[in-house]
Amino acid sequence: MGTSPRDARRFVGPGLEPVVTGPRPGRLRDRRGRGARGPLALPGPLSPASVPLHRAPRDAFDRLVADVLAALEPHFVRETDDVDVVVEEAPLLPPEWDERVPTSVVAEHLTPARLVLYRLPLASGCETRADLEHAIWDAVLHGLAQVWHVPPESLDPR
């Protein structure tokens, strides 16, 4: 029994043409808006910690918040009121909500007080990373100023 021409194309062996294989066209495209994927975004000899494209948006947002809080660390040492800073994806709003979606909320009635930053509303209003960093600074400064009863300008180290 002979093999059909269709089956002969699948195998590589002596006397057969080598088959060139590789990724399917379009396989490395940005599907579902999650950023670049594939070998260009993975860790390697020239970028051992991987390139920034490899970080998830949540990780990048958390890193920005951590940088802002690190810059404000002297104020956390001086102030007597403890504050928890929490990052959540989006607020849970009732279906009849028709106002602007909040970007952050301060819960002063809790012990310790809690400042909640909402990642998606903050990020959706920003076009660049600099805009996002500025929005995070504003949200954190205004939230901490509300808890500590000081003007936001007095906390800003920039």
Q: How would you sum up the major sheet? A: 3 strands, mixed
Counting DSSP E segments of at least 2 residues, the number of strands comes to 3
How many alpha or pi helices?
A: 6
β-strand amount: 5-15%
**Overall helicity:** 25-40%
State the end-to-end distance. Answer: 80 Å
Overall mean pLDDT stands at: 75
- Rg of Cα set: 25 Å
Spatial ordering of strands, largest sheet = 1-3-2
Structural class: alpha+beta
Low-confidence stretches: 5-13, 19-23
How would you characterize the overall build of this protein?
There is one protein chain. The protein is 35% helix and 10% strand. The chain is of the alpha+beta class and 158 residues long. It has a 3-stranded mixed sheet. A hairpin with a 5-residue loop joins strand 2 and strand 3. Helix 2 crosses helix 5 (129-148). Residues 5-13 and 19-23 have low confidence and may be disordered.
Keyword list:
alpha+beta; 158 residues; 3-stranded mixed sheet; 6 helices
Layout of helices and strands, plus pairs?
Layout: H1 5-8, H2 57-71, H3 73-78, E1 83-88, E2 104-107, E3 113-118, H4 119-124, H5 129-148, H6 152-155
Helix pairs in contact: 2-5
